[in-house]
Amino acid sequence: xxxxxxxxxxxxxxxxxxxxxxxxxxxxxxxxxxxxxxxxxxxxxxxxxxxxxxxxxxxxxxxxxxxxxxxxxxxxxxxx
Length: 80
What we know:
Strand order of the largest sheet: 1-2
Structural class: mainly alpha
Number of domains: 1
Oligomer: single chain
């Protein structure tokens, strides 16, 4: 996927989710995964550098990029 395509999808999700920090439920909706999978990814360190220091709030733009590049899905992710 080109950088231009990634930026277009980031802009799309920015309109759908205008707050820059996502809840686990919002991140799950973007990723098309269960909320439990998002929590699993977090506990496995796959969201390190994307989370806020207060609870599980995830940087929207960085998360979309992570999903589009497939980096979050390395290994087992059946946290449903």
